[in-house]
Design a protein that fits this description.
Layout lengths: L2 E8 L2 E8 L2 E6 L6 H12 L11 E8 L2 E10 L2 E6 L6 H10 L1 E2 L4 H8 L4 H4 L1 H5 L2 H53 L6 H44 L5 H37 L3 H4 L2 E2 L6 E3 L6 E3 H85 L4 H35 L1 H44 L5 E4 L5 E5 L2 E3 L6 H18 L8 E4 L7 H11 L5 E6 L9 E3 L5 E2 H8 L3
Parallel strand pairs: 3-15, 3-16, 7-14, 14-15
Antiparallel strand pairs: 1-2, 1-4, 2-17, 4-5, 5-6, 8-9, 9-10, 11-12, 12-13
Helix pairs in contact: 2-13, 3-13, 6-11, 6-12, 7-10, 7-11, 8-10, 12-13
């Protein structure tokens, strides 16, 4: 169950080896000793980083994970670094999840977004973009439409089977009766050649007449379907594309404009609020302390004012920021509504194209079958002429025999056609259950894909809430609670009021960044693919809080790898020794002037 790592020219490590044990693995050392570089080496083995040592042409990481060896080489190629070999994670989706939710170093995008006070929806839901959910839904819907067409044909076949069986039974009875009558009339073979020829002509004529009837019925049905398609196309109303797209573009532009205003106002509010809350007026302006109230020179316009007036104006900025958030929600609703209209437009256009293609196919089919009808009618007229001429040469008895023989031949040909049709119908109808199951499977997959984003968002927020419920009492933070809004804004409450992230301590922001990343870890089930959590850059946490964090993470994965400075107390677990490593900082110390 142990992992063994060999490292050459990765980040700040020239050469080093280490063994990871299941549970806690601590890398203890001073600054520039290789702690963070070791985390980067593990990220290289996973396939989410390529930190070749500065000045080196090649680097190498080999990971022996439970008997399975993984080797990655980094090769400098001009100004870029090329990765060779096969890392632990080969899929883009798995690597993206690992980078976001398992590699929790200072470069972690979720931690950075929290520290910057940014909206977290984009970064927490990045793995979904890789899966191309909308494309998959479109492909599955097209496949389902094809299956539904086959289901309709199978159902039509099942409905037709009883009538075809009745036809077969009737034809078999007619053939049997005709054969009995012919045996009574066949007393001699005189005129048998003419009878055979006449019966053949009549059988062919009857077959041609039957085909004419079928083609006429088919043309009528096709023309009826064509009329329905044309009527549907004429009734189809396609909205103007330009108006929807222009309105959507304007709405998105308005939304972004209000967001920009909010970012600017929020920055202004946070800076001024912090100056006032931390009583740092003297840092930016002159303050005249008086008995009743301090007189302050405004650090923007240099006019005199009071501390109370400044508090009031900063509160007004906060209220304006709240109003802008409400405007953002209104603009988001408008964007969602217009996006729905744009989707409706696309669906209508697709239906218009489908109808136009179907109409063209039906028109072509009608033309082909009308040509075939004309050929059959011509042949029927020719056969009538031949039959009329030959019939005059045949006696009354022969004529009856000929009629019977013709009827038998025609009925036998018709019987064969019905039997072939029955076999085809039964084969098609037998597929109905399988096709229904296939349609149900496709519908379920489509519904799952449509619900996946909403489900992941819900699980992420729930996981964040659960983690906050455990974190706050354990760490005794300066805020009472924190939550992710439906739009994935991070809201923190302190002293019963919403507080700005910039007003929190660095350690509290680091803690919230880790909680947000762990929420994504749970929502995207990263532990099923990546059996480790890599934690680096949490130096703002006190010794007691770091121990608390490590215990909180203990049961979340197989390997917890984290960096720690020498002054922190020992941890219950495996401590990795770095004394034998060769690091870049050793070379710099050796070449520094004495």
């Amino acid at each position: 169950m142990t992992w063994h790592l060999d490292i050459e020219n990765i980040a700040g490590i020239r050469h080093g080896t280490a063994t990871l044990e299941p549970g806690l693995d601590a890398i203890r050392g001073t600054n520039w000793g290789g702690k963070s570089s070791f985390i980067r080496a593990l990220e290289t083995a996973l396939g989410v980083a390529s930190p070749l040592t500065e000045g080196a042409d090649r680097g190498h990481v080999e990971l022996d994970a439970d008997g399975e060896s993984v080797a990655v080489d980094l090769v400098r190629d001009g100004r870029t670094v090329r990765r060779e070999g096969t890392p632990y994670l080969t899929g883009e989706y798995d690597r993206k999840r690992a980078r976001l939710f398992a590699c929790l170093d200072e470069r972690n995008p979720v931690r950075r977004a929290v520290d910057a006070g940014e909206n977290l929806e984009g970064v927490l839901l990045q793995p979904l973009a890789i899966q191309n959910i909308d494309e998959e839904i479109g492909s599955l819907k097209h496949e389902r439409e094809q299956v539904e067409g086959e289901i309709a044909r199978a159902n039509e076949a099942a409905d037709r089977i009883p009538s075809v069986r009745d036809e077969i039974e009737g034809l078999e009875a007619e053939i049997e009766d005709a054969n009995e009558r012919m045996s009574q009339l066949s007393t001699d073979d005189d005129g048998s050649d003419e009878r055979d020829r006449l019966s053949g002509l009549r059988a062919e004529r009857d077959q041609v007449a039957s085909r004419i009837d079928r083609f006429e019925n088919t043309v009528e049905r096709t023309e009826a379907t064509l009329a329905d398609k044309q009527e549907e196309l004429e009734a189809l109303t396609v909205p103007e594309e330009s108006s929807v797209e222009d309105d959507l573009a304007d709405a998105r532009e308005e939304l972004q404009s209000v967001k920009n205003d909010l970012d600017l106002l929020q920055s202004l509010y946070s800076a001024n609020q912090r100056v006032l809350e931390e009583d740092r007026l003297g840092l930016v302006t002159d303050v005249d302390h008086q008995l009743t109230d301090d007189t302050v020179a405004c650090w923007v316009c240099d006019s005199e004012t009071s501390r109370g007036e400044m508090d009031a104006r900063v509160d007004a900025l906060g209220e304006r920021a709240t109003e802008l958030r409400s405007e953002i929600e209104t603009h988001r609703d408008t964007v969602d509504r217009l996006e729905a209209r744009a989707e409706e437009f696309d669906q209508t256009r697709r239906r218009e194209r489908d109808l136009e293609e179907a109409i063209a196919d039906h028109e072509s089919t009608v033309a082909d079958r009308r040509d075939r009808l004309a050929e059959l009618r011509t042949r029927r007229d020719e056969l009538d002429d031949e039959i009329e001429e030959l019939s005059a040469e045949v006696s009354a008895t022969t004529d009856e025999l000929t009629d019977l023989e013709s009827e038998v031949k025609y009925r036998e040909m018709e019987l064969e056609e019905y039997r072939d049709e029955l076999a085809t119908l039964e084969t098609r109808a037998d597929r109905a259950d399988d096709l229904e199951a296939e349609r149900e499977r496709l519908s379920t997959e489509i519904a799952d894909l449509r619900n996946r984003k909403a489900a992941v968002k819900r699980r992420t927020r729930e996981a964040f809430d659960d983690a906050i419920g455990e974190i706050v009492p354990r760490f005794e933070t300066g805020f009472e609670t924190a939550r992710l809004t439906p739009n994935f804004d991070l809201v923190v409450a302190r002293n019963g009021r919403e507080a700005q992230l910039s007003a929190l301590s660095e350690g509290e922001r680091e803690l919230l960044g880790l909680v947000a990343a762990l929420a994504g870890h749970a929502a995207f089930e990263v532990g099923d693919t990546v059996p480790c959590l890599l934690v680096d850059g949490v130096s703002s946490l006190a010794d007691e809080n770091l121990h608390t964090l490590v215990e909180y993470l203990r049961d979340r994965t197989t390997y917890i790898v984290f960096t720690v400075h020498p002054e922190y107390t020992a941890f219950e677990g495996n401590e990795i020794t770095i004394d034998d490593w060769t690091v870049v900082s050793d070379e710099r110390s050796a070449t520094a002037p004495q």
